[in-house]
Amino acid sequence: MTDGANIIAAARRWIGTPWRHQGRSASGVDCVGLLVMIARELGLSVKDETGYRRRQDGRRLFDILSRELQLSAITNWKNGDIGLFKECGFPVHVGFLAREDTTETVIHAHARRRQVVEEPLAVYGAPVAVFSLKEQD
């Protein structure tokens, strides 16, 4: 089942995994690789896009996410939704959104920290778009 709790539990199992550009295994993942690996783990079909640069094109990333996932409301996101974040002014980073009581976090493969981490969402601010990995009802 792909409810938010299962998605967050799957994402948290990857915490501490090394960061690796275009990585798609337990030996290393990038932010997109984390999304792909969790989708696969949950038995979901998500087309994997590779061949992107280290600093990817934000428009291309948004287009790919829009084709593969369901766009959700930014202000009413749910556990397990995927936030698209800006870095240096461009939407180039994704992470899993989690909320417990009033605590909001993001689970993501962090290049500068060289691993998958969970940290307060306030570090990144609000995502510029939110997508759902969940199966359609």
Features:
137 residues, endopeptidase fold (from Nostoc punctiforme), two-stranded antiparallel ribbon, globular, alpha+beta, 23% helix, 3 helices
Structural notes for this entry:
- The protein has helices at 4-13, 31-41, 58-68, and strands at 24-25, 28-29, 70-72, 82-87, 90-100, 103-110, 115-120, 129-132.
- By secondary structure, it is an alpha+beta fold.
- The chain has one domain (4-132): endopeptidase domain like (from Nostoc punctiforme) (endopeptidase fold (from Nostoc punctiforme)).
- A six-stranded antiparallel beta sheet has the order 3-8-4-5-6-7. Strands 1-2 form a two-stranded antiparallel ribbon.
- β4 and β5 form a beta hairpin.
- The longest helix has 11 residues, at 31-41.
- The chain is globular, with a radius of gyration of 13 Å.
- The model has no long low-confidence stretch (mean pLDDT 87).
**Could you say what the CATH topology is called?**
endopeptidase fold (from Nostoc punctiforme)
Please write the string of helix (H) and strand (E) elements: HEEHHEEEEEE
Q: End-to-end span in angstroms?
A: 12 Å
Residues in helices, as a percent range? 10-25%
Strand-pairing-aware structural class: alpha+beta
Characterize the biggest β-sheet: 6 strands, antiparallel
What number of structural domains do the residues give? 1
CATH class: Alpha Beta
Beta-strand proportion: 25-35%
Mean pLDDT, all residues: 87
